[in-house]
Amino acid sequence: MAFDQGAVNFRLFYLQHVLNTSVLSNFADNAAPPLATLNRDPISGWVTGRHLLDREIVEEKCIFGPYLYTMLMKAERKVPEALLKAHCKLEEEVELRARGVEFLPRTVRAEIKQRVIDTLLPDMPPTLTSIPSVIDLSQNLLLAGAMSDKQIDAFSPVFKQTTDTQPILLTPETAAIKRKQVNHNDLALTSFSPDLSVDPPPVTTLGMDFLTWLWFNWEKNGGVHKNSDGEEFGYMLEGPLTFYREGEGAHEAVLRKGTPLNSREATTSLICGKKLRKVKFTLAHSEKIYTVAVDAEFAFRTMKLPKIEQMESGGIFQERMRLIEIFLKDWFTLFDKFLDIRSDSSAWDATVNEIRQWILQTDAKIR
After folding, report:
1. DSSP letter at 281?
2. In degrees, to the nearest 5, what angle opens at C-alpha 93 toward C-alphas 90 and 94?
3. Cα 307 to Cα 257: distance, rounded to the nearest angstrom
């Protein structure tokens, strides 16, 4: 999903070096090859955020205020699985009759498959995919639609080669160091379970601790806060919920439909030592409403932004990025509050006890 329309998917990255608008020439130098050059092997490179065939990377198409918007495009030819399977069956039937046998060795079937691919591939239309990216030059922050480990592994080396700047994935752990100089390895392991026989996880679960704390904080304190600019915002959580805990038994529990936050299954998961791993997060800032599915690694999926007044395309993109910036400021206001508590051993011990009591009280109400 692109950044200029619809719902948005993105991960955040810190940048090792400060970038400015002059880096645009690097993207232009590494623009995607013309689609006409596509043969058997995939081709890839940068295009503008306008569409996947716009290779003209220039300032008026890519720079909007403090934002530099491009996409990493990949083009390849693929034989659709159903078509490949059908042709392979046809070829295998011919081979069976020619050999006078009922079964073909695996090596022969593999040779047939490769022969079919070689025959069909040149006539296949190009398949285009992309990873959209926005560099916020004012904050030296990168937002990229690289959501999976595979996409991150594909995107990061190309970005570094293009900009000579290493993108560092923003996770709860890297954000804690960057924002508050808190090293998660120095934090005590924590279990929220009221059952004290439940052992803490073997490693620090900073992101899941944060999401579970968000839930507790919203239930107990109302979820209304002020950001660093003194602007008030509120938040709430909704299902579906994903709980997780390493160890014996079921590691993951997913609760959908109904009211999972107020369900017996949710409190049972917490009592068993599981923590919140994914949740739907709703933020209200002034009259602006955001909804997003967020996980414990700070991957933001299907973010729905507040509606904006109709304007020209460049203005729409810039306004949408400004709205994302507001959301992130509020989100990290909450994370900073959590880090202040999490890094203070006495404050954290008191909070953990409160969370355990809250779990017991909630469970008693539901039962």
Report:
1. E
2. 90
3. 26
Strand partners, 12: 143
Specify the pLDDT at position 249: 55
The single-letter DSSP state of residue 7 is: S
3-state secondary structure of 227: coil
CA angle in degrees (0–180, nearest 5) for 279-284-285: 135
State the pLDDT at residue 308: 85
Q: Is the dihedral of CA 266, 271, 273, 276 positive or negative?
A: positive
Distance from C-alpha of 247 to C-alpha of 82, rounded to nearest angstrom: 40
Note the pLDDT tens digit of each residue in 248-276: 655 888 888 767 777 888 898 999 999 99
Q: How far apart are the C-alpha atoms of 176 and 203, rounded to whole Å? A: 16
Report how far apart, in Å, the C-alpha atoms of 24 and of each of 21, 31, 69 are.
6, 11, 10
Residue-wise DSSP of 18-65: ---GGGHHHHHHTBPPPGGG--SS-EEEEEESS-TT-----HHHHEET
d(Cα 258, Cα 105) in Å, to the nearest integer? 52
pLDDT tens track for 219-232: 988 889 999 889 99
Q: What angle do CA 45, 47, 51 make, to 5 degrees?
A: 135
Q: At 23, phi and psi to the nearest 5?
A: -70, -15
Cβ contact 165:19 at 8 Å: yes
Return the C-alpha torsion angle 78, 82, 83, 85, nearest 10. 100
Spatial contact of 342 and 187, defined as CB atoms under 8 Å apart: yes
**Contacting residues for 161 by C-beta, under 8 A, at least 6 apart:** 30
Instruction: Annotate 229-264 with b (16+ C-beta within 10 A) or e (fewer).
Output: eeeebebbbebebbbbbeeeeeeebebeeeebbeee
